[in-house]
User: Fold this.
Amino acid sequence: MSYKLLIGQKSYSSWSLRGWLPFAMFDIPVEIRSTVIYSDAFSEDVTEFGGGKTVPAVVTPQGGVLSDSLAIAWHLVEAFPEKDLLPSDPVLRAQALSITAEMHSGFTALRGACPMNLRTAWDGFVPSAEVLDDVARIEALWGAALAKSNGPFLFGEYSIADAFYAPVVTRLVTYGLPVSTGTQAYIDAHLRLPQMKQWRDEGLAEDAELSVYDKALERRAFPMPV
Assistant:
């Protein structure tokens, strides 16, 4: 048996992206199942899968259920120690655990004002002071990690910390939020990943566009680096 992963629409479900990336980036076999967030069938689909109330959810090969993205990440770290989903150095590992947990529980202003939408980007978005505070904190966390590792990812090699911040990367570019040159280099490294391009392309191929994620702003092209 392999892992089974339940996700929502790829253009919009930021937590689904966080749940999928560790499997994709570390070559862990998984069977993908999909549901539609903001649909009448969503709750029933999650319940039938065995999850809680949200996506992503995972059923392990042994039949265990992981109903939260953080639980999924921690499980994979323990189940596949040879794949180095976290840094092996104990100091860096603690730092990676801390910033991953902070992403899971924090940055509510940014997440609320700038929902992930991989179909488009926006012109004219004016961030609140609270959103800018979140961006400043994120840049401080990323800068501290990148100063030690020299990149291209937070701890040199890709880790679950990078997976958890992947939707933030997309928010920074699609809402045109101001960032430093060092942050921009990290953003570009993320967006060049074949796995990120795959996720976005598959999201664009899905038929439905959700109006709940629309903004009263002028649209522009999603800024993918070349």
User: Anything to note?
Assistant: The chain has two domains: 3-83, 90-198.
